[in-house]
Write a structure and sequence with these properties.
Helices cover about 40% and strands about 15% of the residues. By secondary structure, it is of the alpha/beta class.
């Protein structure tokens, strides 16, 4: 393992994307190693559930009364992917929780609000993979967020007809190829220059 020649890239999905962006952009977080790139799949900049105006205030009130209260999930496996087998895996896997606490729901919304105006400061090469038919996170908010990122740091791939779980979609191998091409382009610049 050679630290000098190693490249560090974070691969994150949905809530992991929100956590990663918070870790990079917010002052009270700190990543303790050099970061060379980020791949964000359907990052949770803003959950779909909060598109209705009453949702956040309701979550806030529930959180004040009982932050550990379990709220049932409002989506199913078929909302995550068009791959029937993988959608069924979500429904039948006993290790996947089918609830979220009121406290966690509010924390997700608050974190999204905190990073909303910080995209301008993202100076790590980033590949955003955005699903157009996303029932879990609001893809329009993600697209607006990317508009604040300096173009030299941003690569955006928009998959209009795919659902939230891009890595579990029927066309996932297209996604994997897009990821590979981006990694080759952004993380191996010296090799590209010598061969050209």
């Amino acid at each position: 393992f050679n630290k000098k020649s190693s490249k560090h890239i974070i691969l994150c999905h949905s809530l992991g994307g929100l956590i990663t962006l918070s870790g990079i952009l917010l002052p009270h977080f700190k990543i303790s190693y050099p970061l060379h790139g980020i791949i964000l799949s359907s990052p949770c900049i803003r959950p779909h559930v909060f598109l209705r105006s009453f949702s956040y205030s309701l979550a806030e009130k529930i959180n004040l009364l009982s932050p550990k209260l379990h709220l049932p999930m409002i989506y199913s496996g078929k909302d995550l992917t068009s791959d029937i087998l993988r959608a069924n895996d979500f429904e039948t896997d006993p290790l996947i929780p089918k609830f979220m606490s009121a406290g966690m729901l509010k924390a997700i919304f608050d974190a999204g609000e905190r990073i909303k105006g910080e995209s301008y400061y993202l100076n790590t090469p980033s590949l955003f993979l955005v699903s157009g038919d996303d029932k879990i996170v609001d893809s329009r908010s993600t697209l607006r967020y990317t508009q604040g990122i300096e173009k030299k740091y941003l690569k955006l791939k928009y998959y209009e007809h795919l659902k939230h779980e891009l890595w579990n979609e029927k066309d996932r191998f297209v996604i994997f190829e897009d990821m590979k091409l981006w990694i080759d382009q952004f993380l191996k610049p010296e090799k590209t220059k010598r061969s050209s």
